[in-house]
Amino acid sequence: MKRTLHALAAIGLLATVPASAQRYLTEQFSSVDVQPNVVYGQNYSVITGAPQLQPLAMDVYTPTGDTETSRPLIVYIPTGQFLPRYVNNLPTGDKTDSATVEMCRRFAKKGYVVAAISYRTGWNPASPSEQTRKQTIIQAVYRSMQDAKTAVRFMRKSITEGNPYGINGDKVVIGGQGSGGYTALAYATLQEVSEIQLLKFFNTETNLFMVDPTILGDFEGLGGNPALNNDNHPGYSTDISMIFNIGGALGDSSWLEPGEVPICSVHGVQDPFAPYMNGTVFVPGTSFAVVNVDGSGRVAQLANQYGNNDIWLSPPFTDDVTNYAQSALTGTVNEGGEGLFPITALQNASGPWEWWDTTAVVNGCAALGIDQDGAYARIANGYASNPLLSLLGTVGGRARARAYIDTLQNFITPRIYRVLELNVGIAENSTIASGVNVFPNPVARTTEITSTEAIIRNSVAYDNQGRMVRNDSVNRDRFTFDRQGLSAGSYYIELFFNEGSLTRKLILE
């Protein structure tokens, strides 16, 4: 179903904002506060076989000392293969994984509120029946999507209860890492029963569709059999502005339609578990095939074809990370498209941002009754996602993973910034505004733009249709604007300072 959740406007937004710059774009805070294990709901888990009601918990990250009380919210969905950590045959799979914590802390240091959620897990990856493997994984994705929507409703409900987390309910983003990417993509695209009850999701052994919302609850996580689904916080919206997925895949390309939210994706082209374009999901640690899905390459192709990612095209991003991504996309079906960062080298397979502590893995496995050999087998499986980690040692592996997180942040954050329209405007009655002068105006050939109260970091000029015609670094208190090559008419020039931006009208004679 076409569902446009928020109006998106590109006029006046900056393609490349100076690195000194803005809250929500670059880190502004040196430390982060974390409120762990906030219970955001409860629902039935099937991890032990018979459904059992369990609490759903999130860790909430906020910037230390921040005085803002209306901040954008990112709901972050960790990886885990839809099984508990270590049970999933991997060293990762929890909201406290190193990469998840690092991503959440980085966003919070920029000024966001971040809720890293746990979600219901449980499926049967070892079943000899492909139909059972497929049905149980699809149901697991479905339940995790319901839980993510529960988290969004919980946070919006909190606004009516004193807004303890200081969020803006109109600026919400969903992000998913690894298997969390499956959840984020489903959240953005899955809205109709006909989409989940495709022929590929029909169990030929039971002659029933694998997901029945009248039993498991609807796409919002409401209704269904009360012994299988518990309603949480009904009456609050689950609308979002965009999603990003770091790995993962879409259950079927037909889920994605025109008018849905923008999708920003990072994906290893040679991901051994989830396909980059279209292919079969495999279970880590086994050779079992699960289900045919569409990866980020196909998702980006459709999102751009349908115009869903147009907000990132005009004006275009011109930063180094985007240029690298565009270079990697040259000659592919996604050439010239937006919202996709392909990771091309085999040694970067599917998770070069992941790292873990060997001792913690061994101890964590021991607590579950898994011996040391089993712990090291899980670490070996982890190397399939990050093959070079074992060669670099703990310190080198952590440094390399964090360097990849730099890339993820530098690719994803500007796109969140633009979609949420987070550029901070400087009030016209401020001293900075009063110190800005443009003379002469109208402009015959050149005009001098000066600022007596703050350094101008960047300037961007737009024509009267909102199209960017100039984008210049300044980094001083005055510069000359030369209209060379621009025809007569009305233009706007946006001046960026550390404190925000101002827009002035230019008339070119």
Overall description:
The chain is built from 11 helices and 19 strands. With 509 residues, the chain is α/β, with parallel strands linked by helices. It folds into 2 domains: 32-346 and 403-419, Rossmann fold (3-Layer(aba) Sandwich); 431-508, Immunoglobulins (Immunoglobulin-like, Sandwich), CATH 2.60.40.10. The chain has an 8-stranded mixed beta sheet, with helices on both faces. The protein has a 4-stranded antiparallel beta sheet with strand order 16-15-18-19, with no helix packed on it. Strands 13-14-17 form a 3-stranded antiparallel beta sheet. Strand 1 (32-45) and strand 2 form a beta hairpin. Helix 8 (358-367) crosses helix 9. The radius of gyration is 24 Å and the shape is elongated. The N and C termini lie far apart (48 Å).
Which architecture of the largest domain would the CATH scheme give at its second level? 3-Layer(aba) Sandwich
Please summarize the sheet with the most strands: 8 strands, mixed
Indicate the CATH topology of the largest domain.
Rossmann fold
What would you call the structural class? alpha/beta
Large-scale geometry: elongated
Number of domains: 2
Residue ranges: pLDDT <50 for 5 or more in a row? 1-21
CATH class call of the largest domain = Alpha Beta
Order of strands, main sheet, comes to 1-2-4-3-5-8-9-12
- First-to-last CA distance: 48 Å
> Helix and strand string, N-terminal first?
EEEHEHEHHEEHEEEEHHEHHHHEEEEEEE
Helix content: 25-40%
Number of helices: 11
Give average pLDDT, whole number: 90
Strand content range: 25-35%
- Number of E-type strands: 19
Radius of gyration: 24 Å
